[in-house]
């Protein structure tokens, strides 16, 4: 045992006995977190980031498999900044490298790249800086410049440039080659889906630099590929746990199924940032979701947030135990279906998150109302994107007034302008006996005043854009018309892909067959029909997927589109098709639409840039609302709307 303080005065114990747990605290833990915050503005590690950083700092060879968007870059950038000398990063794509360099330089980190496209002059300058640093003692490179902390290269630099590898050998000799990072490491294996011959040649790295740690990163690495990767890179076998055998490769993986990753990650970040020590509830749509979300949140937070599940299949004894643990704070978050609610006698619930929206505004209001019963401030957040509507639609199919109620919920979720309190008030005064006046503080004119603290009240004007989307609506309706004519069926998500000309759009054809393919409609399971977007709609829609989904939902709500239900042996599927209002647009030509004829459609979108949440302001309301944050990744984007 070795006792140390973590740099923040907190005493830590590091076991150097039979087992090392890289999720523990180490002597570098404090500085690591301070640097993470000051350089990258990040407060908490995600998934297995902390373990990877610790093992790297400890000089181990590491393989880390984390889903795309999980945050692999931080796992080497942070140790690179904290370590003596230069970290070499091998990455296959110039565009990825350029992005990273830009990002790092903005954060004030010395990062350079050497690729086939680097001009001679620039590469010479980099070489001489690296050379100078082999002679320098401190952190400067001996000429007053800052030392290069990260050097990105494409794999052929290692495979083909003797000058470069011999420079690395010089660095290694004086202990200034901190580590070698191989991004997209599955590319070394022919068994993977993305084999690159130049990656195969990375096998020389271990021979050239036997004492320099290697960090291999990937988002997809099935067991066979992993074995092949270890073999090719000449890494030792993966050691079980983190044993004291310091020569074995440490393996980290963060399994989170992709569909849910963004919501789970966003919810975890949100809890850690705003309610790290508070109790809360997360409402989920299904029993299965409660399990996945609870596990996901524990994984994503590195077990900092303890979550339990509650649904109708949980036994009474288990429910009782959960209640006890939740009351005592041992369980921080209950992931629940709507079965959880009655009988909640906990008054200090500080947040209620909706992983899925409710079937109606009544439900949403009630569930959200379980926060802040002690009268103190609490937060309610709904995570929403347009395509979420499909699952709900399928669920309420057949319920009396189910569809109307869901549409009102959707209307609320899509409304980025009106005060949430006023939206609730209007809804309840028209649907129940709750009078408008019971919502207090009406203005002199007798109308309700805005609450001043919901997401829509605190939104900065440049976080949303309202614009005329009649042409895009017309394009969507033209495409759906054509799909229907060929007996095809599309969901909200598929339609959003299809009108954007994105690949992967699948159609359930007229005979029930499913086909995958680029903008292809299926007339029957035998016949394929090319959907020529230029011909049908005068081109594709240039908007991101989340925005197109929002527009599709709006067209549903305005009856330009409608839902169509089809049941299979296992489930009810919900598709979208032309609605009663569709003809108002489709009877016009593209030219007419462009000339401003016909009834116009406008829609409000959340701007893509992530909005930093403002600190909550003091309020009299028992729910708290914050500006929304938009999250975006390559093909799955979603908006997250904070409401109360
Ligand atoms: P990957 O390479 O695994 O696909 P990236 O390293 O590009 O993912 O990170 C994805 C995004 O997540 C980046 O915008 C990054 O800034 C952000 N990110 C990484 N780690 C964290 C964290 N611990 N907390 C919040 N955001 C993070
Ligand atoms: Mg990456």
TrEMBL record:
Catalysed conversion reaction: Couples ATP hydrolysis with the unwinding of duplex DNA by translocating in the 3'-5' direction; ATP + H2O = ADP + phosphate + H(+)
Residue span(s) of domain Helicase ATP-binding: 53-239
Span of domain Helicase C-terminal: 266-417
Enzyme class: isomerase
Biased amino acid composition, Basic residues: 610-627
Residues of the full protein shown: 104 to 747 of 837
GO biological process: double-strand break repair via homologous recombination
Gene Ontology CC terms: chromosome; cytoplasm; nucleus
Keyword set, alphabetical order: ATP-binding, Coiled coil, DNA-binding, Helicase, Hydrolase, Isomerase, Metal-binding, Nucleotide-binding, Nucleus
Source species, domain of life: Eukaryota
Protein name per Swiss-Prot or TrEMBL: ATP-dependent DNA helicase
Family: Belongs to the helicase family. RecQ subfamily.
Record-listed E.C. numbers: 5.6.2.4
MF terms in GO: 3'-5' DNA helicase activity; ATP binding; DNA binding; four-way junction helicase activity; hydrolase activity; metal ion binding
Subcellular location: Nucleus
